Amino acid sequence: MENTMAINYVSSDGLNLYAREYTSNKTANNPNKKVLLCIPGLTRNSLDYQSFSEPFRDEYRVIAVDLRGRGNSEYDSNKVNYQPVIYARDIVELIDHLNLSDVTLVGTSLGGIVSILVSNIIPDLIESIVLNDVGPEINPVGLERIRNYVGKSTIVDSWEEAVRQNKLINELELPDLSEQEWLTFTRGLYRVSTNGKIELAYDPEISESIKVKDENTPLIHLWPQFDVINDKPILVIRGEFSDILDVECVERMKSVNAQLTYCEITNRGHAPLLNEPQCVTALQSFFSSHQKINAIKSAN
Predict the structure, then answer these.
(1) Rg (CA), the chain
(2) Of 43, 74, 124, 169, which shows the fewest CB atoms inside 10 Å?
């Protein structure tokens, strides 16, 4: 049986927000454990981190959020609020609500962008960062691909149909999933509606944040914010054929942050699921290494 604990809180603008903590017998009653705070991608939610949590929940508090407009979090009537600065504010408020410190942010895609912003707002509370297939700038090719599907999938009658719909969008990015893995992945993206139909578990209006506003201005340009956190341990994970995170961007990130660790996941596009053996090994090594560094600093 999956061990989870619901976390409910209210944002400063009155929205009911949700996160789930993946627990174990070792961490369920130990609020002093270090925290892995997981922020999903644009269309995903806290269920995206279920398998990720398994190797880590004995040692860490693994908390995964539903950004506003996703999963069990309330939809925002003001679609302009579906943007990274507001999401970052929500995460800061969750950290304050739970009185967290020594936080490692684990951000996939949009979640990585939010992680950079959060680390700028409360740097003293953020110990390290994992950026899953995202950096301070986004390849416009991948962004256009995402624009073409967000909020456009239809409601279906069965999980089989939902899996087929999901494959049309993601099969090239995740080419080697088994049928059971596809079903698990799909059940994290979709839900059963009140009329028994299967629908995506997000507000279609979240696409507002990725609409073209100015052809000559990049949607994301976070190099100044990335430079601010150049003293933090950062692990960058990239899918081998990602169309969101360019290798050139990764090289520039390395030049900015001497502590940056990089892992490229074979046979993956955007974005790795973080349960791949390569990912798990890289994550375990990263968490272990920066914990040792921090222990040495504390001893001195």
Answers:
(1) 18
(2) 124
Q: What is the CATH number of the domain that holds 239?
A: 3.40.50.1820
Cβ proximity of 131 and 237 under 8 Å = yes
Cβ neighbours for 249, distance < 8 A, ≥ 6 positions apart: 135, 136, 137, 139
pLDDT at position 26: 66
Query: Burial code of 141-173, b = ≥16 C-beta within 10 A, e = fewer?
Result: ebbebbbeebeebeebeeeebbbebbeebbeeb
User: What total number of domains does the chain contain?
Assistant: 1
Q: What is the pLDDT of residues 192-251, one digit of tens each?
A: 998 999 999 999 999 988 886 666 666 789 999 999 999 999 999 999 999 999 999 999
Helix axes 84-97, 110-121, angle to 10 degrees: 60
Is the pTM higher than 0.90? yes
Segments in the chain forming alpha helices (H): 50-53, 84-97, 110-121, 140-147, 159-170, 179-189, 223-228, 247-256, 277-299
Start-to-end C-alpha separation, the chain: 43
Q: Note the Cα 283 to chain centre separation in Å.
A: 14
Q: How far is CA 45 from CA 11, 16, 39, 228, 260, in A?
A: 17, 15, 8, 28, 26
Q: What is the mean pLDDT of the chain?
A: 92
- pLDDT tens-digit series, residues 71-86: 999 999 999 999 999 9
Distance CA 244, CA 284 (A): 25
Any residues with CB less than 8 A from the CB of 217 and at least 6 apart, and which? none
Instruction: Answer whether residue 186 shows pLDDT above 90.
Output: yes
Q: What is the pLDDT of residue 57?
A: 94
State the residue range of the domain holding 271: 4-139+214-299
194 within some domain? no
